[in-house]
């Protein structure tokens, strides 16, 4: 037997429902190991095939989706035809409701969604598609190692033609902020606290403000190319943006906000969207 490995095969960007914390955006780096015997080419599997087969399944079944723990006691899942409705009751009295096409949700057969349970679910989806000479697949999912400030956010882009239109997908992102040409770690940490585990909603998509169990809530909704999407969650877990929440607009929003808070200073923002990509804005 010999083992083939591929580090950083892909980045999986998604949102998950945490039984304790609610809606969380996350970005996982995916590493893969395939153990097997050599084929007629002297390979376990060609690297091109590894990337194509594994990444295709991850992209189609897990990426840019809401990942729901199917065994969580406080989570209720209802499917009807092409629709899926998920409701989560939080220990602190908070509540969340997500309604969308079924393809925007993946149910993970576990009490919680984490790197291990997600790796197991992805492995179950991939293994039947591997050739007979591959005897074992091992996956490792881990967040990016970040020194300094970072935040997790969820959002949806109703005008996007692809899967970014799904109302609850997300990212774990670092943030670099410069004040008068100097990087400012204190400013970065403050912004990371501001957007830690946040839902970034477009103001035009806000359907109503209401209370549930005494907790103020927002309900967002829109119709996009894939269908109707709605999301309700505590107002305290949201920040409203005047534009679509693309990373370009988020960088501009951060820059404008900081410029107003630091009049006369030059602001430069490097806002990341997940791993190794993002947008720069100045004010």
Automatic annotation (TrEMBL):
Coiled coil: none annotated. Keywords: Lyase, Metal-binding, Zinc. Pathway: Purine metabolism; 7-cyano-7-deazaguanine biosynthesis. It is an enzyme of class 4 (lyase). Its EC number is 4.1.2.50. The keyword Amino-acid biosynthesis does not apply. Pfam families: PTPS. GO terms for molecular function: 6-carboxytetrahydropterin synthase activity; metal ion binding. Its cofactor is Zn(2+). It catalyses: 7,8-dihydroneopterin 3'-triphosphate + H2O = 6-carboxy-5,6,7,8-tetrahydropterin + triphosphate + acetaldehyde + 2 H(+). Belongs to the PTPS family. QueD subfamily. This is 6-carboxy-5,6,7,8-tetrahydropterin synthase.
